[in-house]
Amino acid sequence: MMMLAAATVMLLMASVSVQAQELTQRKHGSIMEQIQQSALHNDPDAEIKELLDYAATFKGTRYRSGASSPKGFDCSGFTSYVFSKFGYSLTRSSRSQINDGEKVEKNNLKPGDLVFFNGRAVGKRIGHVGIVTEVDSAKGQFKFIHASNSRGVTVSTSEEPYYKRRYVGACRPTK
Question: Does 41 participate in catalysis according to the annotation?
Answer without folding.
Answer: no
